[in-house]
Amino acid sequence: MKTSIRIGTRGSKLALWQAHHVADRLRSAGLAPEIVIITTKGDIVLDRSLDKIGAKGVFTEELEEGLRTGHVDIAVHSAKDVQSTIPADLELLAFMERERVNDVVVSFDPDLDLNRPDLILGTSSTRRKAMLRRFLPQATAAEARGNLQTRLRKLEEGQYHGLVLAYAGVHRMEYDGLIRHVLPETQYVPATGQGSVAIECARNLEPALKAQLHAALDHAPTHICLATERAYLRTMEGGCSIPSFALATLVGPDSQTVHLHAGLISLDGQQLLEEVRTAPVAESERLGTELAESILGCGGREILEAIRQGRNE
Ligand SMILES: NCc1[nH]cc(CCC(=O)O)c1CC(=O)O
User: Fold this and answer.
1) Which are the contacts of 58, defined by CB distance < 8 A and separation ≥ 6?
2) What number is the ipTM of this complex?
3) How far is the centre of ligand 1, averaged over its atoms, from the C-alpha of 190 (Å)?
4) Residue 224 — left, alpha, or beta (φ > 0 → left; ψ -120 to 50 → alpha)?
5) What is the spatial distance between Cα 78 and Cα 143, in angstroms, rounded to a whole number?
6) Mean pLDDT in the chain?
7) What is the pLDDT of residues 207-238, one digit of tens each?
8) Rounded CA gap, 42 and 9, in Å?
9) pTM of the prediction?
10) Which of 51, 88, 267, 299 gives 20 to 30 Å between its CA and that of 25?
11) For residue range 33-63, what is the model confidence (pLDDT) as tens digits?
12) Which residues line ligand 1 (CB under 6 A)?
């Protein structure tokens, strides 16, 4: 069996951190990893917000093409950026152990007060914008696209008082010193997959190699949680640009119960639909699907329809 593994990744600093994290694990498992940088549409189109370029797969398509042609053996993604349904000839082989899931506010102002009346917070996520409108109605949510470094430069230039970002990315880039507030995950529920790294491969990759990669990279509890959240997202039919959220955790004496907190918020923050349900681990995907069906049936469909109509104007 071959031991050299070509790892496909985007070229951003965060993506490269993740690819190196994978490479380290593979080396420990006796494999010889090599990192191959592949540029995606999401890296090139920086002047429009994600919901306008059609967020579906903007960070993944070119990587997936590399898996098909055999140019790379595996592709590394932030799990949050992976579409809810992936092409039939590809599979998600592993989810790596999840980081703290929270959103955080970073700022150069050590005393940043989230309740100041003129607060401007930068974010590019529809979920975060909607949540800010609801939970911090006095604040202005301003568009902040680009990679972490670009956003921090805009922050430094004074375009915002703070940025709302995933703890995971901030921590991986070693900007922990700028974290002023950790937003509670029970209120600012994170996006599906936030904080985990996903490994994708072609279905027809050599089975023994797949097994070895899975053993080296997969974290079983994270995998269960992500499968639950992804089943939720798939049923929500939205991709990453709709303001849905889902956080699964394992609870109970033997971590044999999945606890799912998920929902949908209207863009103006006025309507928040959320539910908490639990199920045995063996029924985790059904839990995700059923919770999504419940949200859709209790007004979620109308929220999604309103968002779609707004976008098409
Ligand atoms: N959509 C961009 C993106 N994709 C993954 C992360 C951070 C790492 C993670 O959530 O795993 C980020 C930046 C952010 O949301 O602040």
Assistant:
1) 40, 41, 42, 45, 50
2) 0.96
3) 10
4) alpha
5) 21
6) 93
7) 999 999 999 999 999 999 999 999 999 999 75
8) 13
9) 0.94
10) 88
11) 999 999 988 777 665 555 555 556 777 889 9
12) 78, 80-81, 165-166, 168-169, 194-195
Catalytic-role residue among 43, 51, 73, 81: 81
Is-catalytic flag, 89? no
CA of 304 to the centre of ligand 1 (A): 23
Token readout for 258 is 């999945």
Per the CB < 8 A criterion, the answer to whether 109 and 160 are in contact is no
**153 C-alpha vs ligand 1 centroid, how far in Å?**
17
Domains delineated in the chain: 4-96+197-218 (3.40.190.10), 103-182 (3.40.190.10), 235-312 (3.30.160.40)
Helix 284-295 / helix 220-236 crossing angle, nearest 10 deg:
30
Instruction: List CB contacts of 304: < 8 A, sequence separation 6 or more.
Output: 236, 237, 238, 242, 264, 296
